[in-house]
Design brief:
Largest sheet: 2 strands, antiparallel
Number of domains: 2
Order of helices and strands: HEEHHEEEHHEHHHHHEE
Structural class: mainly alpha
Mean pLDDT: 87
Distance between the termini: 51 Å
Strand order of the largest sheet: 1-2
Radius of gyration: 21 Å
Low-confidence stretches: 1-26, 193-197
Shape: globular
Helix content: 25-40%
Number of helices: 10
Number of strands: 8
Length: 247
């Protein structure tokens, strides 16, 4: 009888381990842990994620001397007409794992050329069309989407950052159709025509199809808490208007 119970205990332990392994596998996508965003500490971009303006010269060097905005396929006569753009925004990185990182790791992230490119202020900054601190679930570039999606994955792998379910779906919808992930330098003064992936938050998260997104639905899809920059935010009720829903 004692041997039987020992065998039973071993079998249960193995089953538990197997189940745990399966859950871990299910929570991984392209080497990234899939988990909701989590602001585990206060965020201050200027203080926590500093970088030098002279990095613009290094970014141009990475593009063979071209002053080029890969998000729009635009060329600029001067770097003064561009912003330094973090491909994975500092706020997105913070909420995806850097909130618990060291001061040096945050500084490295902010100045890492892998995570930097150029963009016009209209594209880079917070506006209706601007990227601001949005992730791929809320914003995608007009062109070079394959390059952008692949670069996001590379950066997140390098800094062991998570990806939420909506971002994963958006990135996968692009990467699964890519024949190349190289940056495309479109000819100057050429009208660029590409198919842009349109993301519909209601189609992604509105389970009961009532034209709104509830906290229950947000948590079901792993996007809670939902920040103002997220595409789902405008379909939710922010009772105290603090820019965060379901926190």
């Amino acid at each position: 009888m004692k041997v039987y119970f020992q065998y039973l205990l071993l079998a249960l332990s193995c089953a538990s381990f197997s189940s745990h392994s399966e859950n871990v596998a299910e929570d991984l996508w392209r080497g990234l842990v899939v988990a909701p965003e989590n602001r585990c500490s206060d965020y201050n971009k200027k203080r926590q994620y500093p970088y030098r303006a002279s990095l613009e010269t290094d970014i141009i060097g990475e593009m063979d001397g071209k002053i080029y905005g890969p998000y729009s396929g635009s060329y600029f006569s001067s770097a003064k007409n561009t912003d330094i753009e973090h491909i994975v925004a500092a706020a997105e990185g913070h909420d995806s794992g850097l909130c618990d990182a060291s001061t040096q790791t945050r500084k490295d992230f902010a100045s890492d050329l892998l995570n930097l490119t150029l963009a016009s202020p209209k594209v880079n900054r917070c506006s209706k069309q601007g990227k601001c601190d949005k992730d791929a679930a809320s914003w995608l570039p007009e062109v070079n989407q394959c390059w952008y999606a692949n670069r996001v994955v590379m950066i997140k792998r390098k800094y062991s950052l998570t990806v939420d379910d909506a971002e994963k779906q958006a990135l996968e919808s692009i990467l699964s159709n890519c024949s190349s992930v190289e940056m495309v330098f479109y000819p100057p003064n050429t009208a660029v025509s590409v198919k842009v992936v349109q993301l519909d938050p209601l189609a992604l998260y509105d389970e009961n199809e009532n034209g709104k997104i509830s906290c229950a639905e947000a948590r079901l899809h792993g996007i809670a808490p939902v920040l103002r920059a997220h595409a789902a935010y405008k379909f939710m009720n922010d009772a105290n208007d603090d820019g965060v829903v379901c926190n």
